[in-house]
Specification:
With about 350 residues, the protein is α/β, with parallel strands linked by helices. It folds into two domains: about 65-150 and about 270-340, D-Maltodextrin-Binding Protein, domain 2; about 160-265, D-Maltodextrin-Binding Protein, domain 2 (3-Layer(aba) Sandwich). The chain is built from 13 helices and 13 strands. It has a six-stranded mixed β-sheet. Helix 7 (about 190-200) links the parallel strand 7 (about 180) and strand 8 (about 215-220). Helix 4 runs antiparallel to helix 11 (about 300-305). The protein is elongated. The protein starts with a helix and ends with a helix.
């Protein structure tokens, strides 16, 4: 009997211990719940922060480790690098990566570098941009404006055909049998566009366009062409629309200046765009574009713009604005190599 009682006591004690253990595991006290709840909240907060950080990291995961920007040396490289210091400093702060300048010996070299992935962005001329678009999938995204508050209207210029009143030339058709001066074979507004106007508007071809005037000469520059007109050396000439403005004070006292007139003008020609390689991650291309558009709102960026006379900063531009350049290239039936000469 005594053994049965002891066994019963042991069983009761065992059941009590098991119940106690069950209470501790399944139903924590209020004091025990709070730390657990706090830990859970912290875990959720950390998970949220981690997700946000991961999202930000994921957006930049395929970005290049540095932004390589190409320039065509027009002066000593050391001086050129100094001139771009402000842009580099600004872009590094905006993009959060290093910026490196790539010096191309020619537009062809810049295009090849972009096509081979050695260059992310660069500025180009209107014709060289077409080749960058074709060969390197370059996308025009920005263009500098020289006037404060400028719009796309302010980035266009024109090819103009000029003469003196006494020549009797009033239209492109009147050039037949007259002498014609172009500035330089590679000049956009001083040769390529004027020649394309003759082809497109008079139905001429590359085979006979130079035979339409009585004589074709290359003066060497827009200003030289202007003087050739004023001095009566040639009857007509193709020049850029800003040329007379730039040399006005030097030529306005010429005896024939009052006879000078523009008798034909091209469609608007866009200036050279800033171009980014199209295969780069979209998030990176967007960040670069926004950085250029917002440059004028930054102290360092604005100083770079002022130093380079980009008083209106950078504004968006697209491939559509260069259709007139493409039409001109098509009219001239020029190969990419010829366009880049």
């Amino acid at each position: 009997m005594k053994k049965i009682i002891q066994a019963g006591l042991l069983l009761t004690l065992l059941l009590t211990l098991l119940a106690a253990c069950g209470n501790n595991n399944d139903t924590p006290t209020a004091d025990a719940q709070q730390p657990a709840g706090s830990s859970s909240n912290n875990d959720n907060s950390n998970n949220t922060n981690n997700n946000e950080n991961n999202d930000a990291t994921d957006d930049r995961a395929d970005w290049p480790s540095k932004f390589i920007f190409g320039i065509l040396p027009t002066e000593d490289q050391a001086e050129l690098a100094k001139r771009f210091d402000g842009m580099n400093e600004y872009l590094e702060a905006e993009l959060g990566i290093d910026v490196e300048l790539f010096y191309g010996t020619s537009y062809t070299a810049l295009i090849e570098a972009m096509a081979n992935g050695h260059l992310h962005a660069s500025s180009f001329g209107p014709f060289s941009y077409l080749i960058a678009n074709e060969r390197a999938n370059g996308e025009a995204f920005a263009i500098p404006v020289n006037v404060e508050g400028g719009t796309l209207d302010d980035i266009f210029y024109y090819a103009q055909m000029i003469t003196l009143e006494e020549t009797g030339v009033d239209s492109l058709a009147d050039i037949e049998g007259k002498s014609l001066a172009y500035a330089d074979p590679a000049s956009t507004s001083g040769h390529l566009f004027p020649k394309a106007m003759l082809i497109n508007e008079l139905g001429l071809t590359m085979d006979n366009v130079d035979d339409f005037p009585s004589q074709v000469v290359f003066s060497g520059s827009h200003e030289a062409s202007l003087y050739s007109i004023l001095n009566g050396d040639v009857d007509t000439a193709g020049v850029c629309s800003t040329c007379i403005e730039r040399v006005f004070e030097r030529v306005n006292d010429h005896p024939n200046f009052d006879q000078l007139k523009v008798f034909h003008e091209s469609e608007p020609i866009p200036g050279g765009p800033y171009v980014i390689q199209g295969d780069l991650p979209q998030s990176f291309k967007t960040a670069v574009a926004e950085a250029f558009y917002n440059m004028i709102n930054d102290e360092v960026g604005k100083q770079f713009l002022i130093d380079n006379e980009y008083l209106g900063g950078f504004i968006p531009i697209s491939h559509e604005e260069y259709q007139v350049v493409q039409d001109t290239a098509d009219a001239l039936n020029m190969s990419p190599e010829e366009l880049l000469k």
